[in-house]
Design brief:
The chain has 538 residues and is an alpha/beta fold. It has three domains: 21-152 and 161-274, Aldehyde Dehydrogenase, Chain A, domain 1; 278-479, Aldehyde Dehydrogenase, Chain A, domain 2; 510-537. It has 19 helices and 20 strands. The strands form five sheets. The chain has a seven-stranded mixed sheet, sandwiched between helices. Strands 7-6-5-8-9-19 form a six-stranded mixed sheet, with helices on both faces. Strands 3-4-20 form a three-stranded antiparallel sheet, with no helix packed on it. The N and C termini lie far apart (68 Å). The structure holds 1,4-dihydronicotinamide adenine dinucleotide (NAI) and magnesium ion.
């Protein structure tokens, strides 16, 4: 593994100004911080540091419940006229946002890397997932939102139409792992549907959210439609759930449960994208060469701090040793650094909490008898929060990482004998977010996929293909979530379906239609007996 970068060494040695990535200037951060929505009064200042060196590069003022209420009120006032615009105009804003993202790629990738410590390629994955989503909703969203005629109670008498009305103000509570994507991938469909947005970004990553907002305004979104309120989860986050008409949360299962309970108590809908303990099944007939390469980013994308990252690999016993050997060789050859270029295969963990949790999980497993095939330690010579990509064998029940999400670059590899055994092991989890099956037999692969209790499954792909298929829903079974993002599902959840039934001749009551109740009952009865036989009417 590469030793410490000279630039980084210098940055760490001096406590002067942090080294900024090439496309960002120091005046960007105060400018972005000024874009937050806060009402008057005192606010605590929060220093934002880059995980690469743990140096602070900017600060924001932390909003409280008063600021959240203020932002929601402003958003609520603006939402009415936004909702009245033709959907094509709202879609055009998304398309301009898409174009601006492409134009500002270098700056955007710099900022994501600076704020999260991820490798540039991993920032690229985040960024282009967002670009793809912008394109998808700009071109396909309007047709999903179109009003539809539905079958009426009695044919010919009733014309029933369903409209999709916006919820009003949608709150987004975002995590730190994908600080740009996990704000705007959910904000875009909500905006397209005619809602206004208030975002509570993660404490440690407010600048990506603020940067995205500036891009949205530049794309023509009236600023009152999108407010960013930095703040603490228990304070601003809880207040947001209280104040909005719909809340979308991405983060830990524990907090997601609280957010869901709070939203349900207010009789408002919500969606949750939570954790995972994602399995991969490698069958006896897998193409080992491709599978090993496929597993690399499936396990180590942003150092495993991705909700869909694989943390459990089940390998057919006939391939087990060879798989472990080859995957270890590939893992050991990974380049790990803190550079703002495409050289690294993996970057840093995002915070001290993450490093502590990853270290504790690995140490616990090793103490209880697991074998470290490779990795198993922090890499302080690269940066303060780096941890080696780690493969473990001999992991058993009773070790913390056997069931709990590590959310780090740590994978346990287990052997299996039969497909049924592999399925049982893979499904033996409280979570159900993502999984993959690796096999040359595609029909068996797809059959096994359907038996996995997970919201998305890749066949001969980790999760990139499923995640990148923006037209299809993404989300979790079991403790991995509630509701979906992407596709029509990820758009229509931000609407209230409204049923408008027009009676063409007279109200649907016997007297108005010129019948006694008894006669009308007879007409309905006869009609029902007939309708069953008429394909166009039933
Ligand atoms: P978290 O769930 O505490 O934070 C996510 C967001 O929720 C942040 O914006 C936070 O400020 C906010 N929040 C916290 N408490 C809140 C409350 N009571 N009401 C409303 N909002 C609240 O996640 P954390 O502590 O950053 O990470 C802990 C673990 O969660 C990770 O190690 C990982 O296992 C998991 N996680 C999963 C993510 C995913 O993509 N599914 C993303 C981030 C974390
Ligand atoms: Mg937390």
């Amino acid at each position: 593994m590469q030793v410490q970068d000279p630039v980084l060494a210098q940055a760490l040695a001096s406590d002067s100004e942090p080294t900024l990535p090439p496309h960002l200037s120091p005046d960007l951060f105060p400018r972005l911080a000024a874009g937050a929505t806060l009402c008057g009064g005192e606010h605590e200042s929060f220093a934002v540091e880059t995980p690469f060196t743990r140096q602070a590069f900017g600060s924001v003022l932390m909003g409280t419940s008063a600021d959240v209420d203020y932002a929601v009120e402003r958003a609520r006032r603006a939402q009415q006229s936004w909702a009245k615009l033709p959907v094509a105009e709202r879609a055009a804003t998304l398309l301009r946002f898409h174009d601006l993202l492409l134009e500002r790629q270098a700056e955007g990738l710099d900022l994501i890397q600076l704020e999260t410590g991820k490798a540039r390629y991993h920032a690229f994955v985040e960024y282009y997932a967002l670009v793809a989503t912008a394109r998808y909703y700009a071109y396909h969203g309007p047709k999903h939102l179109r009003s539809q005629f539905r079958t009426g109670f009695l044919p010919l008498l009733t014309q029933t139409e369903v409209h999709h009305q916006p919820k009003g103000v949608v709150g987004i509570i975002a995590p730190w792992n994908y600080p740009l994507l996990l704000v705007y991938t959910d904000a875009m469909p909500a905006l397209l549907a005619g809602n206004a947005i208030v975002v509570k970004p993660a404490e440690q990553t407010p600048f990506s959210a603020l940067w995205g907002a500036q891009l949205m305004y530049e794309a023509g979104l009236p600023p009152e439609l999108l407010h960013i309120v930095p703040g603490y989860g228990a304070d601003a986050g809880a207040a947001l759930t209280e104040a909005v008409d719909y809340v979308h949360f991405t983060g830990s299962t524990e907090v997601g449960r609280t957010v869901g309970q709070q939203a349900a108590a207010g009789l408002k809908e919500f969606s949750l994208e939570l954790g995972g303990k994602n399995p991969a099944i490698i069958r006896h007939d897998a193409d080992l060469e491709k599978t090993v390469k496929g597993m690399q980013d499936t396990c180590f994308l942003i150092a495993g701090q991705t909700c869909v990252s694989t943390e459990r690999i089940y390998v057919h016993e006939s391939l087990f040793d060879e798989f472990v050997t080859r995957f270890a060789a590939l893992t050991e050859a990974m380049l790990i650094n803190a550079r703002y270029d495409f050289s690294a295969h993996m970057g840093s963990l995002a915070s001290q909490e993450q490093l502590d949790k990853v270290t504790a999980h690995v140490d616990d497993a090793v103490e209880k008898g697991a074998t470290v095939v490779t990795g198993g330690q922090a890499l302080p010579h690269i940066g303060p929060l780096f941890y080696a990509p780690t493969l473990l064998t001999g992991v058993r029940a009773g070790m913390d990482l056997f069931r709990e999400e590590t959310f780090g670059p740590v994978v346990a590899i287990y052997p299996f004998k039969t497909d049924d055994e592999a399925l049982a092991l893979a499904n033996d989890s409280a979570y159900g977010l993502s999984a993959s099956v690796w096999t040359r037999d595609l029909s068996t692969g797809r059959r096994l996929a359907e038996c996995l209790e997970c919201g998305m499954v890749g066949v001969n792909d980790g999760f990139f293909a499923a995640w990148g298929s923006i037209d299809a829903p993404m989300g979790g079974f079991k403790a991995s979530g509630f509701g979906r993002r992407n596709g029509p599902e990820g758009l229509l959840k931000y609407t209230e379906p409204q049923n408008v039934a027009t009676q063409l001749f007279a109200p649907m009551v016997p007297a108005a239609l010129g019948f006694t109740q008894e006669a009308f009952a007879g007409v309905v009865d006869t009609a029902f007996r007939l309708i069953k036989h008429i394909p166009g009417l039933r």
